Amino acid sequence: GAGVSQSPSNKVTEKGKDVELRCDPISGHTALYWYRQSLGQGLEFLIYFQGNSAPDKSGLPSDRFSAERTGGSVSTLTIQRTQQEDSAVYLCASSLQNIQYFGAGTRLSVL
Amino acid sequence: AQSVTQPDIHITVSEGASLELRCNYSYGATPYLFWYVQSPGQGLQLLLKYFSGDTLVQGIKGFEAEFKRSQSSFNLRKPSVHWSDAAEYFCAVDRGSTLGRLYFGRGTQLTVWP
Fold first, then answer.
1. Of A4, A6, A98, which is closest to B94 when you measure between CB atoms?
2. How distant, in Å, are the alpha carbons of A17, A32, A100, B48 from that of B108?
3. Distance of CA A48 to the CA centre of its chain
4. CB pairs under 8 A between A and B
5. pLDDT at A6
6. Of the partner residues A31, A91, A103, the one whose CB lies closest to the CB of residue B100
7. What pLDDT digit, counting tens, does each position of A64-83 carry?
8. B102: contact with A, CB 8 A cutoff
9. Quick one: which of B33, B49, B54, B83 has the fewest CB in 10 Å?
10. What average pLDDT does chain A have?
11. Is a pLDDT exceeding 90 seen at residue A13?
């Protein structure tokens, strides 16, 4: 069956530009997570959506980061006014019964 | 604070040798425990998980892990490593609450010599 799909797989942008990263979770999974993976920080939690509940945004590093999940399915992570320190791999996961399944990630490079 | 420790940043083993990757966590209760593997340019693939019950759990690709409550450890093992096992391995903890997020160790990079 289809796994978690993320697009684009790679994104190169200029400092100061906005970017949108997309995540299509596994059908039927009610929970969706975003993580960031960088050399210096390892794997960091960003945000978590569970059903219709308010998202847990406690991991977002600044107000330049936001995410939404439409219709309980697709999610978009938006980074405004990108900075070089935003360069990382952004991983999305969806979950059923406490098991998280990850997408291949989006590699973001901010020049 | 919640933490997951993988003390070995990089391990090198010969093909056919046994492997043990260490993971310790700090948390009062018994969380849900996971091992994931990541190959270059790929996402995280679940190897195995522990929720409760038998403390020795079997996973995919011939891996197993043992939960030891007294040591707050969840070490990953494989009796005979294959060259295709070269990858980065992450231990992760879920507190089992509605919060749901995973706490990850910093990862162990495995190199396999032919």
1. A98
2. 34, 26, 20, 16
3. 9
4. 55
5. 97
6. A31
7. 999 999 887 999 999 999 99
8. yes
9. B54
10. 94
11. yes
CA distance A10 to B113: 31
Residue A70: the pLDDT is 86
How far is the C-alpha of B37 from the C-alpha of A49, rounded, in Å? 24
Give B-chain residues touching A91 at CB under 8 angstroms: 43-44
Higher pLDDT, B38 or A51: B38
Residue A8 has pLDDT above 80, yes or no: yes
Comparison of pLDDT for B41 and A38, the residue scoring more: A38
Q: Does B46 touch chain A (CB under 8 A)?
A: yes
Whether B66 contacts chain A with CB within 8 A? no
What tokens were used for B86? 């070269």
**Is it the case that residue A49 has pLDDT exceeding 90?**
yes
In A, residues 48-67, which contact B (CB 8 Å cutoff)?
A: 48, 50, 56, 59
In the chain, the amino acid numbered B2 is Q
Q: What is the DSSP string of A35-95?
A: EEEETTTEEEEEEEEETTSPPB-TT--STTEEEEESTTS-EEEEE-S--GGG-EEEEEEEE
State the smallest CA–CA distance between residue B30 and chain A in angstroms.
14
- Which of B13, B24, B1, B47 lies closest to B106, judged by CA? B24
Question: What residues contact residue B13 under an 8 Å CB cut-off, 6+ apart?
Answer: B19, B81, B110, B111, B112, B113
Q: What is the pLDDT of residues A53-65, one digit of tens each?
A: 889 999 999 999 9
